[in-house]
Amino acid sequence: MTVELVRASAHDADVLFAARVSTLGEQTLAHAPEANEPGGVEAEHKRDRGLINYLMQGRHGSPFEHNSMTFYVRAPIFVFREFMRHRIASYNEESGRYRELGPVFYVPASDRHLVQVGKPGAYDFLPGSAEQTALVQQQTRAAAIHAYESYQRMLEAGIAREVARIVLPLNIYSSMYVTMNARALMNFLSLRTKREGTQFPSFPQREIEMCAEQMEEHFRTLMPLTYDAFNANGRVAP
Amino acid sequence: MTVELVRASAHDADVLFAARVSTLGEQTLAHAPEANEPGGVEAEHKRDRGLINYLMQGRHGSPFEHNSMTFYVRAPIFVFREFMRHRIASYNEESGRYRELGPVFYVPASDRHLVQVGKPGAYDFLPGSAEQTALVQQQTRAAAIHAYESYQRMLEAGIAREVARIVLPLNIYSSMYVTMNARALMNFLSLRTKREGTQFPSFPQREIEMCAEQMEEHFRTLMPLTYDAFNANGRVAP
Amino acid sequence: MTVELVRASAHDADVLFAARVSTLGEQTLAHAPEANEPGGVEAEHKRDRGLINYLMQGRHGSPFEHNSMTFYVRAPIFVFREFMRHRIASYNEESGRYRELGPVFYVPASDRHLVQVGKPGAYDFLPGSAEQTALVQQQTRAAAIHAYESYQRMLEAGIAREVARIVLPLNIYSSMYVTMNARALMNFLSLRTKREGTQFPSFPQREIEMCAEQMEEHFRTLMPLTYDAFNANGRVAP
Amino acid sequence: MTVELVRASAHDADVLFAARVSTLGEQTLAHAPEANEPGGVEAEHKRDRGLINYLMQGRHGSPFEHNSMTFYVRAPIFVFREFMRHRIASYNEESGRYRELGPVFYVPASDRHLVQVGKPGAYDFLPGSAEQTALVQQQTRAAAIHAYESYQRMLEAGIAREVARIVLPLNIYSSMYVTMNARALMNFLSLRTKREGTQFPSFPQREIEMCAEQMEEHFRTLMPLTYDAFNANGRVAP
Fold first, then answer.
1. Is the pLDDT score of D92 beyond 90?
2. Model pTM?
3. Contacts of C77 by beta carbon, 8 Å cutoff, 6+ apart
4. Which residue of A61, D25, D113, D189 has the lowest C-beta tally within 10 Å?
5. Are A9 and A222 in contact (CB under 8 A)?
6. What value of ipTM does the predicted structure carry?
């Protein structure tokens, strides 16, 4: 899974700015973040942290929307299928109608847990045996090669790309740009990662979680106070 | 492609009701559709038609939202991939994580045009030769069988469903419920059908158009005045 | 505040139907709710309740979207201003551009708490003194009469309605239709009511809460299992 | 009306980048905009313009979403009421519950057309007479002063801000931050400006159009190719 942060306009200061218009109104613009505050920089930082935590706790979500992060994601189609169910985001994906797709397929790594136990919706996954691991790797490779040959055969016979591609498997890689704001991203993370201390635990498929973890790392770097408040409040998106 | 209308609360009268609150305010509720109007039923019908046409023409979209249609759709995954890019709708789909998927695959019928000509984004499709048609049917069948055997082999070896399914091809059938209002449906139809007289022509893949055509037929029956106004105004969603 | 349920297509069965497509796929349609289930009606009812609770707890929100409720709401403009910040809903409101607004104004009742104590964002409200109550009632009435006379004077002089109306106060009544699904409604209720046992307490203005309470009552009647699960899980929308 | 561009991450290049992922897939990132192209910079510029026009014409809307513009807007409440009906945007507004609102009111300027002629939904506005203009200015001022005195009287008597504010008129100024992407902004402009050459003419209230015109000017500067394509294709948002 590849996740690159292509472009971001996302800072904790954006949250503060938007939130303070409620209480400061037309003075917000004058009240630049660098303005001198009673108590100096440290006191100001503490107030900022407190305000962001207050917003998160009270589920005042709109101040977390005035920002934007664009990611380039390269992942198999079965991951994109889950990803695009998140509707508060903008997507553009590589098109199998407009271009010939390349022969790059996802094969589960040896450390991918392969055996599910437990109830639907709350599965636990355990490591597979050596035989199971070998089987999965062999089958996913063989199926991919077989399908891709079929795809090529049809293209060579002059069949339209949009028709030929229908034989390709769900583990073929695709790529997309996705743009989200921090509020939407927190909702995504709350559902697509499995973490201790989560108010409402989720059980995502491991492969989308691998994407989510990379996005989370970018988010943590860009908006550290917002990120801390998200974690401190049970990882529920405001 | 199967499309069934599972449930609908969608009538032209809903549009009129919502629109008239603008001009009648608190009297709307009293002003029931069956109320006696000057000029009788025929004149009233003409006024209704005129109001809906006026709304469509002026892109007053919100009155077209106070209604709801739920469809059951059974189609291949490559169709669902395009479908779910429409974000103003509600989806629930069969899950390859929670259940074993059945061996039902889409094979293009003999009348499916297979050869594309023209520029990207505005392709025309022409019938394939007998050889091309035979090749497509043979390849899509063979690839499906091969992939499904691989899927079965992994399931039998105790591999989790969510892992085994990644070898399945894009032409396997899935099923879902989708709920939309008329405004969102018109947007869907404007982009997923190819019709004469369309203000902004679209070039959808034939298979999603086959779904769209069935949805359009339900829409036409449920909301005939709205449907006529949609067509009369270039099939641009308001 | 007037809230009437104009039309609804909203049942717990819709939630179950949509959720079961995940695990039953194409058999859902056949699997009608009245089908004979092992254990009879009572066991089925228990299973239904369990499934809805499971969905709510795991924040599987999409099954709660395949339904629709349309309300007619009559309330002052300052309530509509808060209401329309909820974006997952459809609105049509009486227009001050298209019609002359009637002289109906909101005057706080004697039991409306008038004095705020505590911190911003978490105020408590206490009853006003007899003098305070009298002042509020006298001032809101007098201001309304004065403003409405100004409005009338301009209309009589041939001024356009959209200009004349700008003198009208925020407590003038307006009316609208609003359509929501159960998921959006639960989000609305979680933010616009103040209840014991709420995971993330909110502090709504009392007048919008008066609308929300009436909507909640309709919701409780239409979808009792969903409503119970909402309350049992901290009144957090899934 | 004050509109300031607070922050923007919005360039024509973002549109091109997102669109090209469809046809270039994983090579998009490598294919930086400054890359050497056959035909040099001029030919490249022509290709860019052509692609953006093609997207607009074919209503391929999603590439126009990977960008973000945040505006600070100061305008009367009756303008905000219309503004916030646009749901694909993020808002934070000055709160009459959390702060005391200042006595700043909108009074129509002498060149504001005051007399409406024509049919509902397609009014034309003509200049008022000297008497009409004087009346409007006198009445809006007097009503504002009267209402604000009432507001002050209640605040001084210890009445909560959220109650006292209900007497304030619709022409009192408020301020907000609003964040949109280019696609949402084009939709806003198509409905809130009145221009020659518009495919579906709109008839906005003049005061929101004054905001829209300032936003349009920022948009034109930030994304000139997108802006040209919007105008060349009838000002219909893609």
1. yes
2. 0.95
3. C170, C171, C172, C173, C174, D81, D170
4. D113
5. no
6. 0.94
